[in-house]
Design the sequence.
């Protein structure tokens, strides 16, 4: 039996320090690095990712983590070619599958149809290809 699912492709990269190469709309991952230990802290989306990174670094949990000696690393994937609803779906799939430490939404449930995500580029700790959600049978013409 064939199944219907939404399929997405992402290419993650490290943003330039000045934000010059950052896409205008992105899904991003935040990692913490200390003593050779790398952990996935957060997955999010932003219309202006570089501005969002600056805000993250100077407030809340990431500020506390930095004060404890952790280095913070960001990776971004341009999602400008996807609709807002699709970006929500991709973000939810990534969070549900990878369970980042600081995310709260989407960790316990995934309320979208079957979603497959293929990932390339700078993606430590992320599965390169995965599927989550309900896979619905394709409807065939009678």
Sequence:
């Amino acid at each position: 039996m064939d199944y219907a699912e939404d399929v997405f492709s992402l290419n993650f990269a490290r943003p330039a320090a000045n934000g010059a190469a950052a896409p205008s709309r992105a899904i991003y991952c935040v990692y913490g690095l200390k003593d050779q230990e790398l952990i996935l802290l957060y997955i999010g989306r932003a219309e202006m990712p570089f501005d969002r990174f600056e805000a993250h670094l100077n407030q809340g949990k990431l500020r506390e983590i930095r004060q404890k000696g952790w280095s913070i690393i960001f990776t971004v994937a341009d999602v400008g070619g996807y609709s807002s609803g699709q970006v929500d779906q991709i973000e939810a799939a990534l969070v549900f599958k990878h369970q980042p430490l600081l995310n709260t939404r989407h960790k316990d449930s995934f309320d979208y149809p079957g979603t497959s995500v293929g990932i390339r580029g700078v993606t430590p700790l992320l599965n390169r290809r995965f599927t989550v959600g309900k896979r619905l049978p394709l409807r065939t013409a009678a």
Summary: Helices lie at 49-57, 60-67, 84-98. The longest helix spans residues 84-98.
